[in-house]
Amino acid sequence: MNRKILIIADKFKGSLNANSVARVIASGWSNVWPDDQIEQLPMSDGGDGFGSIMADHMNLSEQFFLGCDAARRDCELSYWIDASFKKAVFEAAVSNGLSHFQKEKYHPFELDTWGVGELLLNLKLNKVEECLIGIGGSSTNDAGFGMARALGWRFLNNEGKEIINWTDLSSLKSIIEPDAINFPNITVASDVENQLLGSNGATRIYGPQKGLKEEDFAVADKCLERLAMIVADKIENDFSICPGAGAAGGLGFGLMAFAGAKIRSGFEMFAEKTNLKAKISNSDIVITAEGKMDSQTLMGKGTGQVASMSQSLGKPCIGLAGQIQFSRAEKMKNDSFCYLASIVPELANTSDSISNTKPYLKRIANDSAKNLIFD
Question: Using CA atoms, how far apart are residues 91 and 251, in angstroms rounded to an integer?
Answer without folding.
Answer: 12
